[in-house]
Design brief:
- With 280 residues, this protein is an alpha/beta fold.
- Helix content is 44%, strand content 23%.
- The strands form two sheets. Strands 3, 4, 5, 6, 7, 8, 9, 10 and 11 form a nine-stranded mixed sheet that branches. Strands 1-2 form a two-stranded antiparallel sheet.
- Helix 1 crosses helix 2 and helix 1 packs across helix 4.
- The longest helix has 25 residues.
- 32% of the residues are buried.
């Protein structure tokens, strides 16, 4: 029979991609986890993990087992909570872009944790373009993501992109080639800024590129470039430029899950976000 403890630890290793990181989360030594994975592979009768210097990667059998193991573990936790008459339990890995984590997560998580204090939340902050591969590999269970189509039926809340600058440096707006501080090229704010400039024929250059929100804000504060942020993420000491530059589009915020049958904790947090996010 399959050992649920082994399955649960296998799922943590698969999500982290590292036995050393998993050992810190689980509270077992690396050697103990390695022995557990050998026992699980013996029970399954197939190799589940490729081990290398850069970490561990799932085999084809490992990917197949992970999907079924997560569904089995979620069903186990639901049954146990129901029979005990207790609230939700377990660990939940949530991904979120950095600007949303600053603007929305404190209020969202404060309310959720008050309702479900036994759910352990683990956060991964990254752009949507990096969160989706993590969802696909089931390294996170759910994520707040940005959608280019702000009218999509999946959208919970709309956010507008805005140009931000140091108000003490107005001369930068009249630069022959406007210096911009943007996220990586595949992100929505980068594409929105470039498309807006090209639509009106305004010359520009990428003076600074980073997926770090703190880095973009720092460059805007320095007065060396203009950045693009979601309006709710603009700090009070930066100026929103509303004239002299082309308008920027709105984007949508949605919740996406790694599995079509998410765990009870993931479903509960998803519903909490859908109810509370539009109010913030």
């Amino acid at each position: 029979m399959l050992d649920l403890v082994l399955l649960r630890n296998f799922a943590v290793i698969a999500r982290t991609g590292s036995i050393s990181l998993a050992s810190l989360q689980i509270g077992r030594t690396q050697s103990a986890l390695s022995m557990q994975m050998q026992r699980l592979e013996n029970q399954i009768g197939q190799s589940l993990l490729h081990r290398s210097g850069s970490g561990v990667h799932l085999t084809t059998a490992g990917h197949k087992l992970l999907a079924q193991a997560e569904a089995l573990l979620a069903a186990h936790d639901d049954v146990l909570a129901d029979m005990r008459g207790t609230g939700l339990k377990g660990a939940l890995n949530l991904g979120c872009p950095e600007d949303y984590s600053i603007a929305f997560l404190p209020d969202l998580l404060r309310g959720f944790c008050a309702l479900h204090p036994d759910v352990e939340l683990r956060m991964v902050c990254a752009p949507t373009s990096e969160l989706r591969p993590l969802l696909h590999r089931r390294q996170i269970e759910m994520a707040l993501v940005s959608l280019a189509d702000a009218t999509s039926k999946e959208v919970i809340r709309q956010e507008r992109f805005v140009w931000v600058a140091n108000e003490a440096q107005p001369a930068i707006l009249h630069s022959t080639s406007l210096p911009l501080a943007l996220s990586a090229p595949m992100t929505l704010d980068h594409r929105a800024a470039c498309d807006a400039m090209e639509t009106v024929g305004r010359r520009y250059r990428i003076a600074f590129a980073s997926n770090s929100l703190a880095g973009l804000i720092a460059i805007a504060r320095s007065g060396h470039a203009i950045s693009v942020l979601t309006e709710t993420a603009v700090p009070p000491d930066l100026h929103v430029v509303r004239t002299g530059l082309p308008p920027l589009p709105s984007i949508g915020i949605a919740v996406e899950f790694a599995d079509q049958r998410p765990s009870a904790a993931a479903k509960a947090l998803g519903e909490h976000i859908r109810v509370e996010l539009p109010r913030l």
